[in-house]
Design brief:
This protein is α+β, with helices and mostly antiparallel strands. Helix content is about 50%, strand content about 10%.
Length: about 210
């Protein structure tokens, strides 16, 4: 594991939808960070040093040298990291409880539903060595259902939960790959409009380019 520089957050990550969330958040909040690549194609996520900060051997994970009480802290799981950084900075994570509940609802909708299901769609549509029609149809249809949920939520709204927030960051990195999931955003015009808007943000572009 790389030595953390004072005041600079180490982001152990790779170029995946989950992996891009944290550089985007750090760019949005203006926090100094360093990307520590974890090449999941080579199995580097199983290295003991990485497992020490991410016991589920999944990216991303962070090491913040200036954690609570000024002491270092490690955080794994993308949703937990987004919440932590939001609380740390007051950025993109509202303090009003009613609004925060809405942000949390859509954040957990992404990490518990949208991400895993779209990940399965990616796998069976593109990466599986054997094409299994049942699996392709199952996860493509579930992707369509979830995009329908997202499209209805964005009807008359600019963002998922009030202002732009960590819920949007969590979702955009997956929705960016809608074509791989068998999704044409022409069928989901609110999603297409929202996606164009969030992907145009300079911090989002810098975060996507960081890995």
């Amino acid at each position: 594991m790389a030595q953390t520089t004072a005041g600079v957050i180490d982001v152990h990550t790779w170029s995946t939808p989950n992996g891009w969330k944290i550089p985007i958040m750090l760019e949005e909040c203006g926090l100094p960070y360093r990307v520590v690549p974890v090449n999941i194609g080579k199995g580097e996520q199983m290295a003991p040093d990485f497992l020490a900060i991410s016991p589920n051997n999944k990216i991303p994970a962070i090491v913040d040298p200036d954690g609570p009480g000024g002491q270092p802290i490690t955080v794994f799981e993308s949703g937990a990291i987004l919440q932590y950084l939001g609380r740390k900075t007051g950025c993109l994570y509202p303090t009003d409880e009613r609004v925060r509940v809405a942000v949390d609802e859509w954040l957990f909708w992404q990490v518990g539903g949208l991400g895993p299901m779209l990940g399965q769609a990616h796998h069976f549509r593109i990466y599986a060595k054997e094409k299994i029609p049942y699996a392709v149809e199952r996860y493509t249809e579930e992707a369509k259902r979830l995009y329908g949920v997202l499209d209805r939520r964005l009807d008359g709204r600019d963002h998922l939960a009030g202002d732009y927030s960590i819920a949007d960051i969590a979702t955009l990195t997956w929705a960016k790959f809608h074509e791989k999931q068998g999704i044409d955003t022409a069928a989901y015009p609110n999603v297409g409009r929202w996606l164009d808007t969030v992907l145009a943000r300079p911090a989002v572009q810098r975060g996507l380019a960081a890995i």
